[in-house]
């Protein structure tokens, strides 16, 4: 499939996205003419889909290919940290003991990111829709 033509606005949008803006903010920075915030979001989402080939190409050029990302993810799942534990010895001396442990909070961030990227992680709003509520009168209904 051929790449979509890059208009000046799309170029500005890509530049903003590559600079760290999210899709919606990139549409604002590129100065798309929108009457409401939802329009910026829609344009950002549309551009992300239309310009995906350019985004993937840029990721590959900057060393963030799919393979490189997988390698970094695996490294992140093994990350450790050093914790320090103060204690008093039997002789009354104060000492600090250092221990290397799994960095659970950091590992969780890596795992959350991977699950989001694969579409396996639900946002709070999605979780609410899938929640089953049991009322006091024992009737079951889907969450709002």
Can you describe what's shown?
With 144 residues, this protein is an alpha+beta fold. 52% of the residues lie in helices and 17% in strands. It has a domain at 8-64. The strands form two sheets. The chain has a two-stranded antiparallel sheet. Helix 1 (8-18) packs across helix 2 (23-29) and helix 2 crosses helix 3 (37-50). The protein starts with 7 loop residues before the first helix and ends with a strand. Residues 129-135 and 138-144 have low confidence and may be disordered.
Taking the alpha carbons of the first and last residues, their distance comes to 41 Å
Shape: elongated
Main structural class: alpha+beta
Q: Treating each run of at least 4 consecutive H or I residues as one helix, how many helices? A: 7
What can be said about the biggest beta sheet?
2 strands, antiparallel
Q: Kindly estimate the percentage of residues that lie in beta strands according to DSSP.
A: 15-25%
Q: For this entry, what is the oligomeric state of its chains?
A: single chain
In the sheet with the most strands, the strands line up as 1-2
Low-confidence stretches: 129-135, 138-144
Average pLDDT, rounded to a whole number, is 81
How many beta strands in the DSSP annotation?
A: 4
**What is the alpha-carbon Rg in Å?**
24 Å
Measured as a percent range, the helix fraction is 40-55%
Order of helices and strands: HHHHHEEHHEE
